[in-house]
């Protein structure tokens, strides 16, 4: 056997093994996570294994929200044929980032089912599942009927857009996942969080996850941000809307300050 054909044969055997293990993973999203290089934190494992169709994550920055939901998106697309997964966020860049994280995990799993099409914001698998990222502005999602709707940075999405989006999941009785840091005490994200509606709820403050954001880094952030914004971004405390506490400049500055903790790296893979 030539070395080229040997390499090819090894690839074939490897993909067979991974395919078999993917079948086994149908039962266990935590095992899936581990197989793609993530040992889920306990709250991530709870969320991954919860069969509640509505999940809301109101958490501090850097606790692992996007990673956990990216895992779930990849897992659903792989294990439930013909899933239609829509990822939306106030800005396209945020939706694309979660999309890239999910695609990264699908790749790490050795691309189960293969890709029928693979574009910057849309992935279609051989089992008929699709994952698509869109900015959430009015009308972008009209006509979509997702089986799983993911709303990234949900506290910053206008309420009318939210209602339009969820109109589409009502038709399919699809799953819904909202993830965000706390925003202002108004709008659908706050109202859902504060309501007694039945949701799988996750609240993890950034200071509860020192393995992802160090106490020193957190302290630097605290010193550089207005107190209320720090508490919203890192400690899950919603901002008061009354009294005009902040001007637009404060808000843009605080949001911009948050940007540079975005970098995400797991091992030396590209996302
Ligand atoms: N279970 C895990 N094991 C190891 N690293 C993890 C795990 N979960 C998340 N991380 C790492 O922690 C960091 C933050 O993760 P992630 O971006 O998912 O958090 P986030 O809550 O979405 O952050 P942000 O608020 O900035 O959007 C990343 O570097 C990610 O790779
Ligand atoms: Mg995130």
What does this structure look like?
The protein contains ten helices and eight strands. The protein is an alpha/beta fold and 271 residues long. Strand 4 and strand 5 form a beta hairpin. The radius of gyration is 20 Å and the shape is globular. Mean pLDDT is 85; it is low at 14-21 and 256-271. Bound molecules: adenosine-5'-triphosphate (ATP) and magnesium ion.
Task: Describe the SSE topology.
Elements: H1 3-25, H2 29-35, H3 42-49, E1 54-58, H4 65-79, E2 84-89, H5 92-108, E3 115-118, E4 122-125, E5 130-135, E6 148-152, H6 159-172, E7 175-180, H7 187-194, E8 200-202, H8 215-224, H9 227-235, H10 248-259
Parallel strand pairs: 1-7, 1-8, 2-5, 2-6, 6-7
Antiparallel strand pairs: 3-4, 4-5
Residues 38-41, 44, 61-67, 212, 261-262, 264-266 line the site of adenosine-5'-triphosphate.
Defining key terms:
binds adenosine-5'-triphosphate, 8-stranded mixed sheet, 2 domains, Rossmann fold, alpha/beta, 10 helices, binds magnesium ion
CATH C-level of the largest domain? Alpha Beta
Terminal residue distance = 36 Å
CATH homology group of the largest domain: P-loop containing nucleotide triphosphate hydrolases
The percent range for helix content is 40-55%
Radius of gyration: 20 Å
Largest sheet: 8 strands, mixed
Q: Strand percentage, roughly?
A: 5-15%
Q: How are the strands of the largest sheet arranged?
A: 3-4-5-2-6-7-1-8
Question: Using DSSP, what is the number of strands?
Answer: 8
- Element string (H = helix, E = strand): HHHEHEHEEEEHEHEHHH
- Please tally the helical runs, counting DSSP H or I stretches of 4 or more residues: 10
Total of domains: 2
The average pLDDT score comes to 85
Sum up the overall morphology in one term: globular
Structural classification = alpha/beta
């Amino acid at each position: 056997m030539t070395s080229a054909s040997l390499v090819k044969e090894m690839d074939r055997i490897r993909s067979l093994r991974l395919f078999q293990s993917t079948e086994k993973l149908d039962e266990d999203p935590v095992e899936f996570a581990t197989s793609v290089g993530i040992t889920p934190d306990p709250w991530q494992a709870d969320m991954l294994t919860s069969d509640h169709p509505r999940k809301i994550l109101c958490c501090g920055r850097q606790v692992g929200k996007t990673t956990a939901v990216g895992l779930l998106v990849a897992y659903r697309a792989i294990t439930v044929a013909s899933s239609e997964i829509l990822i939306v966020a106030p800005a396209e860049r945020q939706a694309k980032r979660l999309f890239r994280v999910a695609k990264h995990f699908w790749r790490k799993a050795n691309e189960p089912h293969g890709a029928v099409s693979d574009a910057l914001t849309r992935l279609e698998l051989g089992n008929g599942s699709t994952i698509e990222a869109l900015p959430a502005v009015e009308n972008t999602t009209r006509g979509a009927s997702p089986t799983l709707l993911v709303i990234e940075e949900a506290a910053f999405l206008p309420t009318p857009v939210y209602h339009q989006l969820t109109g589409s999941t009502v038709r399919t009785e699809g799953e819904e996942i909202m993830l965000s840091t706390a925003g202002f005490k108004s709008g659908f994200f706050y109202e859902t969080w504060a309501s007694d509606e039945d949701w799988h709820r996750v609240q993890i403050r950034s200071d509860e996850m020192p393995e992802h954001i160090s106490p020193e880094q957190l302290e630097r952030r605290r010193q550089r941000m207005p107190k209320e914004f720090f508490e919203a971004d890192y400690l899950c405390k919603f901002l008061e809307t009354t009294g005009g506490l902040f001007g637009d400049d404060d808000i843009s500055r605080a949001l911009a300050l948050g940007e540079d903790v975005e970098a995400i790296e797991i091992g030396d893979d590209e996302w």
